[in-house]
Design a protein that fits this description.
Strand order of the largest sheet: 3-2-1-4
Structural class: alpha+beta
Number of strands: 4
Radius of gyration: 16 Å
Largest sheet: 4 strands, antiparallel
Strand content: 35-45%
Distance between the termini: 45 Å
Number of domains: 1
């Protein structure tokens, strides 16, 4: 891991009952600690018991920046 304080995403594979295709659902976040351990915070518990931890990619970082900018624009209202 390049950045020891990096935020990561936690994903779980889910199967579509109709098509049988597998897709990934974000189910939490993870943070790397200085000692090399990782804290994982789940928003939901995957019923299949499978998790995958990945570093945030450019799309994730852009979404976070967009959400942050939306909040700042609302704070600049004159009333």
């Amino acid at each position: 891991m390049e950045n020891p304080s990096a935020m990561m995403k936690v994903l779980s594979p889910m199967k579509n009952a109709k098509t049988g295709k597998t897709y990934w659902v974000r189910c939490g976040s993870a943070f790397a600690n200085r000692d090399g351990s990782t804290n994982i915070y789940l928003d939901v518990y995957p019923t299949n018991g499978q998790l995958q931890v990945r570093e945030l990619d450019e799309r994730d970082l852009q979404r976070r920046a967009d959400r942050a900018n939306e909040g700042k624009a609302a704070d600049n209202l004159p009333f």
